[in-house]
Structures are given as C-alpha cells and as structure tokens.
Amino acid sequence: MIESTELRDVVFLEVAAKRELGPESEDRSSITTPMMAWFRADGDDTIEVRCRLQVASDSASFVADAVAVFSVGDKCSWGEGLEREFTDKVGVTVLYPYLREAVHSSAMKLGVPAPLLSLINPFIESAADLPRKNSPHGVVGGDI
C-alpha cells in the first residue's frame, strides 16, 4: 500500500512564535515538545495526515501545524491499524522535517536560541500505544 502512495503537497495551517519576556537563557533543558497527529481519508484516492508540533523553551514558545496530502494509487479499505501505521511511519515522518524547520526559522526571526530538535522524527516509536479520539480533522493519535 505504501508503495502506491505519493506525496502531492504540504500545506501549513499555522506557524507561530512568541518570545517569552524575562531574562534570556541559553539553558535548553526545559524544552517541551508535545506533538499531535491526525489521519483523514478523503475519498478513494487522497489521504491527509496533519501534525501539530508545540515547542516551549525558556526563551520562546512555538507552534507549527501542517498537513501532508498524499495520492493513493491502489484503493484499499482503511482500518484502524492501517491508518495508525500510515500516520506513524509515513505521515509524521514526512511532516516532521517541515515542522522542525518552521520552528527553527521562527526562532531565528525572534532572535532567540533555536530549540534543538532531533534530526529525525523522535516520536515514531511511541505513537502506536496512544489512545485515539475522534476529531473534526480525523483521528487524533495523541501527544506523540
């Protein structure tokens, strides 16, 4: 199934950054990075995966929210397991570098130290164990 899937577009829904008032700190140990992921099948030939990354450090807080749109060559029925596997192994892995770059460039624009985020998606292993909830945007995979 993954072999017949192709990335068509990446669309940002939100990129935001806010400088924290107070003394600036080079200490990056207090960085927190919750991330949410959603899956949505739009008809028989389109899949959308949305990821929202929130990062907070001593200097600033950041939000990067984007959707990856995929075309599917082979029609298939999306069960919960296949949705979760595609979201975790393909969707989040594709979107994470875009989100990471959005946070980094936002930090540069604010003139604050950029949070050091992993080069590859560090959340891929934990997403399968998270509870799922319904959402207007599809299925919420939880904080990953």
Briefly say what this structure is.
This protein has 144 residues and is α+β, with helices and mostly antiparallel strands.
Secondary structure layout plus pairing:
Elements lengths: L4 E15 L15 E7 L4 E11 L3 E13 L7 H31 L22 E3 L2 E3 L4
Antiparallel strand pairs: 1-4, 2-3, 2-6, 3-4, 5-6
Describe this structure in words.
The structure is a single chain. The protein has 144 residues and is α+β, with helices and mostly antiparallel strands. It has a single domain, classed as Roll (Bacterial Protein-export protein SecB). The protein has 1 helix and 6 strands, in the order E-E-E-E-H-E-E. Strands 1-4-3-2-6-5 form a 6-stranded antiparallel β-sheet. The longest helix has 31 residues, at 80-110. The relative contact order is 0.25.
Strand content: 35-45%
Summarize the amount of helix as a percent range: 10-25%
Distance between the first and last residues' Cα? 24 Å
Question: Major sheet, described briefly?
Answer: 6 strands, antiparallel
Q: Which oligomerization state do the chains in this entry correspond to?
A: single chain
User: C-alpha Rg, in Å?
Assistant: 16 Å
- Which structural class do the helices and strands define? alpha+beta
Report the average pLDDT across residues: 78
The count of DSSP E runs of length 2 or more, i.e. the number of strands, is 6
Query: What's the helix-strand series?
Result: EEEEHEE
Top-tier CATH class: Alpha Beta
CATH superfamily: SecB-like
How would you sum up the global shape?
elongated
**From the coordinates shown, what is the CATH architecture?**
Roll
